[in-house]
Backbone:
């Protein structure tokens, strides 16, 4: 089945710096790649997603890039703020398209 | 619009018992998926339902089962509970499910003692 690797598992940055989280996937049929943010004790929430026909997508301070040839995609957060502190999960669609395979998460800490 | 509602929020059960969790999707969403979240394994896919049909199932033992009703509400059942079943069970709904954004509920925290 699909395997999604996510790195790093923890990331600490100072407020205002950029943060980058990287994921790789194994199934070349995957064509949908969402990112979720989960604050402590709360539900995962979609922050951005990208489909395989697009190489990059941006939404204010958040951007995602996709390299289908290399089977990796990345989340970029610029001008980080303390409220960006959370666990971030990448995911890739499975072979059926009806399930998402998640990475194990990156715990991001933004210190003032 | 109300979000995905999961009940109960917390459950404590004993090994060997069985449990049923409930999920009400966002109005108009016909696809419901279930995920198990544990600290070591992240989010793992259990199953997905659309129009009362299970379309995909994850790599979990047969003790884990689910169903969807005609109003799109879904239940999942775990029989013969084991200690390792302790986890946060998340339900998510989406409009069409295929490569669509998932909207998660707050989850049911199951503790097996």
Residues:
């Amino acid at each position: 089945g699909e395997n999604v690797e996510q790195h790093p598992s923890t990331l600490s940055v100072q407020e205002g710096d950029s943060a980058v989280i990287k994921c790789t996937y194994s199934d070349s049929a995957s064509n949908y790649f969402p990112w979720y943010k989960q604050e402590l004790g709360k539900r995962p929430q979609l922050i951005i997603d990208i489909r395989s026909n697009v190489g990059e997508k941006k939404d204010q301070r958040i951007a995602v890039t996709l390299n289908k040839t290399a089977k990796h995609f990345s989340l970029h957060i610029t001008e980080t703020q303390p409220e960006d502190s959370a666990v971030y999960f990448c995911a890739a669609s499975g072979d059926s398209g009806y399930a998402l395979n998640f990475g194990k998460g990156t715990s991001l800490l933004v210190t003032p | 619009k109300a979000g995905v509602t999961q009940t109960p929020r917390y459950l404590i059960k004993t090994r060997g018992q069985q449990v049923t969790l409930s999920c009400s999707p966002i109005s108009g969403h016909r696809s419901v998926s279930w995920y198990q979240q544990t600290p070591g394994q992240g989010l793992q896919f259990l199953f997905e339902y659309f129009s009362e049909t299970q379309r995909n199932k994850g790599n979990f033992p047969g003790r884990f089962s689910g169903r969807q009703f005609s109003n799109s509400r879904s239940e999942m059942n775990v029989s013969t509970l084991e200690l390792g079943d302790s986890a946060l069970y998340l339900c998510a709904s989406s409009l069409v499910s295929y490569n669509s954004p998932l909207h998660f509920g707050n989850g049911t925290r199951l503790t097996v003692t």
